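Run log // design_07
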């Protein structure tokens, strides 16, 4: 695998000018309460370029005219702390994973950086400066950026985030295989869950059946599972999963798996009693048609915005036929989210959504329909790989036709 990471770093460095340094941080744990931390999750840009999934690791690269020097800074071994938290990464493990030969200790990073800035004739500093909002807590990279601006105003700053995000937008063969594995596990878990659904259960009981299969496969949910029955399904990110499932309800399952850090993202909407009512079928068919039409249109050159317009047109015509609306400006009452996003290391993966799709892009297709007055929410979501000739539905084996779901739930 280290060859994949080395190739990605080489592609990134080709976009940087000479006399530059590049710094990426794996991240650090975030305090939860008292002496407990939230579970650590590595910065995905860092992982994408190094393959290392540990806290307190720094990737530093010096690019000069004729040389490139890569280094990793890792935590110094500490026998006492390792008794509590497990073994630290060794130098040999880092080399084996990342392909980076020169390893030093995290505790000495600041001193090394200071000498480099003072003596290295550095003209550019390149950092991942992702910023979601002005009031969000500063990242490690942003803290260093502030220091550079204050103490080294003559050094140019470059934000790597758009550049790496664009690289991640197009998946290589290894990434696609990892997503396929996560989808396979999702299918197995979803089908197992459907065989164990019945009225009177709590939503979290159904979620437990799903998670059981993920655990057996060494995977974990790629996001908090949505098991939204009845009127809960009109809430897009409903995650309480604590209500009793009633006879006659539809249940919207928005769920995914993460294996080897790559995500699946699938939504299916099923009847708790195993049979859709005629009203539910009529509404479900509208969403299913939108799902299929958008998948058909997913190909190189199309944009996500264009795909969303196709979904809106199909849903509008369906609702018009059912006399639920009369004008297009009423559609947002029933459909109020986009039809697609990128998928990969993140469930809502990075990348410019306004750029035309190209082969290797991996997107979701997830039209929905939400009737607050009737307590019905329906969404159908698949994971689509864009190919040179069109697309391939990676989740095509997960049942979504009405007859498929009813047949599965009869068993």
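design_07 sequence
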């Amino acid at each position: 695998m280290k060859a994949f990471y080395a190739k990605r770093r080489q592609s990134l460095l080709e976009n940087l000018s000479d006399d530059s340094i590049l710094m990426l941080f794996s991240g650090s744990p975030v305090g939860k309460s008292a002496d407990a931390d939230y579970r650590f999750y590595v910065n995905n840009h860092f992982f994408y370029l190094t393959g290392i999934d540990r806290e307190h690791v720094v990737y530093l690269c010096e690019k000069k005219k004729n040389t490139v020097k890569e280094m990793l800074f890792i935590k110094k071994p500490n026998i006492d702390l390792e008794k509590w938290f497990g073994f630290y990464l060794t130098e040999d493990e880092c080399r084996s994973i990342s392909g980076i030969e020169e390893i030093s200790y995290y505790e000495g990073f600041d001193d090394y950086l200071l000498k480099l800035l003072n003596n290295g004739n550095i003209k550019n500093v390149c950092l991942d400066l992702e910023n979601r909002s002005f009031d969000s807590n500063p990242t490690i990279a942003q803290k260093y950026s502030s220091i550079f601006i204050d103490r080294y105003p003559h050094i140019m700053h470059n934000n790597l985030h758009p550049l790496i995000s664009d690289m991640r937008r197009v998946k290589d063969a290894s990434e696609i295989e990892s997503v396929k594995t996560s989808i396979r596990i999702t299918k197995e878990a979803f089908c197992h869950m459907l065989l164990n659904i019945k009225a009177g259960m709590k939503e979290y009981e159904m979620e437990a059946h799903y998670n059981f299969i993920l655990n057996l496969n060494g995977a974990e949910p790629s996001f908090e599972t949505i098991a939204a029955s009845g009127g809960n399904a009109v809430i897009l990110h409903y995650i309480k999963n604590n209500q009793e499932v009633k006879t006659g309800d539809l249940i919207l399952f928005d769920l995914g798996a993460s294996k080897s850090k790559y995500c699946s993202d699938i939504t299916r909407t099923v009847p708790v009693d195993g049979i859709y009512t005629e009203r539910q079928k009529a509404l479900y068919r509208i969403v299913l048609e939108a799902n299929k039409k958008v998948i058909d249109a997913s190909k190189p050159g199309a944009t996500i915005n264009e795909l969303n317009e196709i979904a809106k047109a199909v849903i509008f015509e369906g609702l018009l036929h059912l006399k639920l609306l009369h004008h297009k400006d009423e559609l947002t009452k029933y459909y109020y989210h986009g039809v697609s996003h990128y998928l990969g290391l993140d469930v809502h993966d990075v990348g410019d959504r306004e750029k035309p799709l190209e082969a290797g892009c991996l997107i979701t297709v997830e039209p929905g329909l939400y009737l607050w007055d009737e307590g019905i929410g329906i969404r159908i979501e698949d994971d689509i790989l864009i190919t040179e000739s069109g697309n391939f539905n990676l989740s095509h084996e997960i049942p979504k036709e009405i007859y498929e779901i009813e047949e599965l739930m009869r068993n």
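Residues 14 and 63 are 10 Å apart (CA to CA).
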